Amino acid sequence: MSADPLQNLLATLDLAPAGIVGGQDVFTGTSQPEPLGRVFGGQVMAQALVAAQRTIVGDRPVHSLHGYFLRPGDLTIPITFTVDRIHDGRSFATRRTQASQDGLPIFSMIASFQTPDDGLEHQVAMPDGLPEPEDVPSDAELLGAVDHPIAQAWAADRAFDMRHVPSPVYFSVEGARVEHQAVWLRATGTLPDDPDLHRASLLYASDYTLLEPIYRRHGVPLVTPGLKVASLDHAMWWHRPARVDEWLLYVQESPTAVGGRGLSLGRIYDRAGTLVASVAQEGMVRVPRA
């Protein structure tokens, strides 16, 4: 990977246009190296959103996205993104993006875009009593002390600084077995002043830790032998503008797990307490039987 993980991410999100085929806008992109050997879900989601954004005319930012992970992605094969311009109305526009490799879909999503408007406004308050990010050790510091190739890759190659409250669940689950946690996150450097790029990057980062409340509730660390985890679907709603190169608080909880699946919900706040986005994800979580 590049010596600068953030620049590598920005290059990965800079898709190449490939014309219009069968009435669909087509783009191509490459993948970041990943120690687990498959395409990171946050990457393909963010790329699919960028492809859709490229087809929107005027000031009409994304406000919601719903996507399904269909197959694992191959890091060695370029990804083709096809965009259907489903609807362009006076206030809203809808796009469907499908990501494919070797002619097979690996991710499919629908996103909605809206011209800025006025209306009713309220939000759920940011939780209080949590430590500030400066008072919490970074995941990079904790993982960097572990002599293992995956830990070293996660410590050095991620474009986001993440800090768990109360602590990560990589190697052990500390404290009470609760179904909630919080993560401070911020890009490792400064991004260009492009609001669409910040929205796509926030979508990218939202996939990192959202299923962890499930593991925390059941005392299952990520290193558990035989643990099988995969994201099934992902939804995100952008409420208000935010910069991902400033500290954001990702508040997460899991209301239920059943049938080898777990559901997690997230709220993302800026440091001033403004609710900037909400997230939901269901994942396959299979723990080996004792």
Summarize the structure.
This protein is an alpha+beta fold and 290 residues long. Helix content is 19%, strand content 38%.
What does this structure look like?
- With 290 residues, the protein is of the alpha+beta class.
- The protein has two domains: 1-116, Thiol Ester Dehydrase, Chain A, CATH 3.10.129.10; 137-290, Hotdog Thioesterase (Thiol Ester Dehydrase, Chain A), CATH 3.10.129.10.
- 19% of the residues lie in helices and 38% in strands.
- The chain is built from six helices and twelve strands.
- It has helices at residues 5-13, 41-53, 139-144, 149-157, 195-206, 212-218, and strands at residues 16-21, 24-29, 62-69, 79-88, 92-101, 104-114, 160-165, 180-187, 228-238, 248-258, 261-270, 275-286.
- The protein has a twelve-stranded antiparallel sheet with strand order 1-2-4-5-6-3-9-12-11-10-8-7.
- α2 packs antiparallel against α5 (195-206).
Notable traits:
290 residues, alpha+beta, Thiol Ester Dehydrase, Chain A, 2 domains, 12-stranded antiparallel beta sheet, 6 helices
